[in-house]
Amino acid sequence: MTKQENKISIRHLYKVFGDDPEPALQYVKDGMGKTELLEEHNHVLGLNDINVDVPAGKTTVIMGLSGSGKSTLIRHLNRLIEPTAGEVWVDGENILEYNDKQLRHLRQHKMSMVFQKFALLPHRTVLQNAGLAPSIEGQSERVYADDARKWLDRVGLHGQSEQYPHQLSGGMQQRVGIARALTSNSDIMLMDEAFSALDPLIRTDMQDLLNELQAELQKTVVFITHDLDEALKLAEHLVILKDGFVVQQGEPQHILLNPADPYIEDFVSDINRARVLRVRSIMATTPDAPGEMAGEIDHDDTLESVIALSEGDTGRTYRVMKQGDAVGVLQMRSLVRALVPSDKSDDPESARRSG
Q: pLDDT category, 162, cuts 50, 70, 90?
């Protein structure tokens, strides 16, 4: 995938925190890890040779445990943090070469950010918070009000425009944050643990809302999370970090079926595979239907729904459809095999990596 096919391309990005990062960076490039760098040189390795392409119009989820570097990485995309080395390309331009004026334009027009703690201004109404970006540019409330109300309505806050943030629940406040990002009319939305502070039911509602908005608007979304279930629900492209480096990235279904590292295997081991995996990931791709079919299923159906349809009969075979066309065949025996995580303990390559 070329830079032109991506909205954002990250190349050889390093971040070392400390008083003298340049010499410390060379230790990292020579093979020193995060723990050794801290113990021997009192510097913290935040990012280690990150190379990620963020496809335009899709949701890229960057996930990892605390300290993995995910929040550090997203803050490089709008230069809230400056790298020690590397490149960040947005629309074919290396933003690390931007001057102050270009950087302001990037933040005001190309990128919006939704924060975990909402970051609403308490003295402004919901409408004024949603219209923050145009107001910073000098637009009056009269000018931006219609657009801000449109997005407030779209995120489920009709009639709330004159309220103040303290009068809203946490979920409603985060809806204001999303409306603010949409009112800015930017192509890119950066979402740093945006739903982590919400109660589970509200969090699920917000995930559903984001997916609905994405289906409609096709923004380029970079979403940070530590929750694999959330990542698999939202991601079209998944990047998994550990200790500042990328362990594996790609289409989430492929990662779930083909974990490339023992760390990833541990991550996905407890996932409800029937609920997450889709028919398209395990079907036999063919327009033909060999033999008798038990019925038709959609390529994007979950395996859980197919199990319910089959009533547990492992002898059935289904024709797989996509937008009215036959694209594959799914045998229930293949489905059952896909529900069992692969055991790579006897794989020499896997053993070498884990050792």
A: very high
pLDDT tens-digit map of 175-199? 999 999 999 999 999 999 988 888 8
Q: What is the pTM of this model?
A: 0.85
Q: What angle do CA 133, 10, 63 make, to 5 degrees?
A: 80
Q: Are strands 296-298 and 85-90 parallel, antiparallel or unpaired?
A: unpaired
Sign of the four-CA dihedral 195, 199, 204, 206: negative
* Predicted pLDDT at 351: 39
Q: What is the mean pLDDT of the chain?
A: 89
CA-closest candidate to residue 48, choices 62, 61, 33, 38: 33
C-alpha dihedral (16, 22, 24, 27), degrees to nearest 10 = 110
> Which backbone phi and psi does 285 adopt, to 5 degrees?
-80, 110
